[in-house]
Amino acid sequence: MKFNPHLHCMVTEGGFRNNGIWVDVNYFPFKMLRRSxxxxxxx
Length: 43
Known about the structure:
This protein is α+β, with helices and mostly antiparallel strands. It has one domain. The chain has one helix and two strands; from the N terminus they run E-E-H. The protein has one helix spanning about 30-40, and strands at about 15, 20-25. It has a two-stranded antiparallel ribbon with strand order 1-2. Strand 1 and strand 2 form a beta hairpin. The radius of gyration is 15 Å and the shape is elongated.
């Protein structure tokens, strides 16, 4: 079997402010997260 480091994550596309109002997140930086994971595994 090959070495294949990866993550499985379940995350919300937003969150609640202190006043209880939901705030949508319209952008998730997949490329940046992929590079960060690769660097953290390499070192």
